[in-house]
Amino acid sequence: MNPGTYSRTALPAAWQLYTAFFACAVMLGSWYPRIPDVQRLAELDGWELGFGLAGYPAGTLLLFTFGTRWAARLSFSQSFRIVVPMLGVALVGATLAGNMGALFACMAAAGALQGVIAVTGNVEADNIEAALDRPVLVRAHGFYSVATVVAGAAGIGFRALQVAPWLHLAIILPIATILVVVATSGIGGKSAMPKTDELYSKIVFPTGKILMLFLAGGAALYLDNAASDWSGILLRDGYAADGTTVTAAVTAWAIGQAAGRLTFPHLSSLVGKERLAFVLALIAAMGLAWWFSRQSLLSHSSACF
After folding, report:
1. In angstroms, what CA-CA distances link 262 with 22, 122, 137, 180, 274?
2. Which DSSP state fits 259?
3. Is residue 157 over pLDDT 70?
4. What are the Cα distances from residue 171, in Å, to 12, 154, 174, 189?
5. How many CB atoms lie within 10 A of CB 249?
6. Which has the closest alpha carbon to 280: 230, 228, 219, 237?
7. φ, ψ for residue 191 (rounded to 5)?
8. 276 CB contacts (<8 Å, ≥6 apart)?
9. Burial, 131: exposed, middle or buried (Cβ in 10 Å; 0-12, 13-18, 19+)?
């Protein structure tokens, strides 16, 4: 879509996208630090919490597998204005889930709704990138992470005031809705689905390179979700951290993620995408090696005593 087709009274095209991503992440960013509270209030064991949280990726995968064509019929503005409030309702429901099944159902709904946004949001980002001839999608995800930082910082205040998780997210819900309405104001109703007569279902087998990309991307997404969902649990159970410390740690993680996403276009242009990916993989390998060596030393020390 040509940015010139946007309303003159609306935000510039790229900033509309950034604000829409920000609004969506305000909801999800408010959910992450409250996961330990949800587990405690629902009296869920670790495996029950894990099964409940698995509803989120399950819902996203189901949407991508069976609902992409339906999602693509919605325009960018339609999808965000409809989905962000519904996503908030699903997350409020998750905070009130009293058992594993209810948590799974609410998270599956949230995951499917997030999938709808991913379809229309990424298509819109591609259109804006083509029109502006500069990176937009990575920066949009950077603003997504910035919103997680803001929501995490706000979560510290809500925790200090001992606000219940459901009330916390219920307060955030209208704020995110207003943001997304502002972000999508003046945008037309163009569908994300391409205009073609060749849309039909068929099985496509991936090439070797696409399969490797899928595995690498899947591993990165797994680690990303594990950090957002389980870091708070680990700090609470493994290191006896209080609620404020847990929320601050999740916020620190989001700060690093936001910094990486926002600076990626500049860094990749300086050193190249392949070199940057190699350096990041090397850092990850060093961290993994350090963890294994530390576990080995701890085991050796225990054996000595």
Report:
1. 13, 17, 10, 21, 18
2. H
3. yes
4. 28, 11, 7, 29
5. 18
6. 219
7. -70, 150
8. 264, 267, 268
9. middle
Q: Phi and psi dihedrals of 299, rounded to 5?
A: -65, -40
Q: Return left, alpha or beta for 99; rule: phi > 0 is left, psi -120 to 50 is alpha, else beta.
A: beta
Which residues touch 251 (CB under 8 Å, ≥6 apart)? 33, 148, 149, 152, 153, 155, 156
**Whether 48 contacts 102, CB under 8 Å:** no
Report pLDDT digits (tens) over 208-256: 887 887 777 777 767 776 776 677 777 777 777 777 777 777 778 778 8
d(CA 87, CA 107): 9
Name the 3-class secondary structure at 197.
coil
Closest alpha carbon to 180 in 5, 7, 16: 16
Sign of the CA dihedral running 207, 60, 131, 196: positive
Is residue 201 scored above 80 in pLDDT?
A: no
Average pLDDT over residues 36-44: 89
| DSSP H or E stretch at residue 161 | none
Query: Model pTM?
Result: 0.73
Which stretch, 13-22, 83-92, 240-249, has highest mean pLDDT?
A: 83-92
Q: How long a stretch of residues is the chain?
A: 305
Amino acid (1-letter code) at residue 157? G
Residue 53, CA distances (Å) to 38, 61, 108, 111, 231 in order: 11, 14, 8, 10, 13
Q: Tell me the three state secondary structure of residue 297.
A: helix
**Biggest CA-to-CA distance, the chain:** 73
